[in-house]
Amino acid sequence: MKKPKDEINAFLGKDTEFEGKLSFTGAVRIDGKFSGEIFSSGTLIVGEGAVVKSQIHVGDMMISGEVHGDIFAERKIEINVPGKLLGNIQTPKLVVKEGVIFEGSCKMQDLGEGIKKDRAVSPAKKPEGLSVLK
User: Is CB count within 10 Å lower at the N or C end of the chain?
Assistant: First the structure.
């Protein structure tokens, strides 16, 4: 039996297009076209044939379609064949299968960790180019 957080709450089918802001809990699967912003602590699944043009902030992301935009994932990003990602990503865990296309930069850092570092030293005392860990 699936946990409630793993249930797919919404599905954007193959022949659909949507533009706007999307926020959700659990999981959402997009197989159509989406442009706008996506915010969730849940899982976003971009199916094969999907085209997503968005700034994305999610817990987990699985890509098999095409994504244009920056992704911030709290836990993990997985890119599967024939997926394409054109944008920058930040996540603590990244899985890239052989044969996918990824054009952008990757920062493998916990999103919460960066906030802690910034608060650890005041800007006036922080030497340029150095970080302080707590």
Answer: N
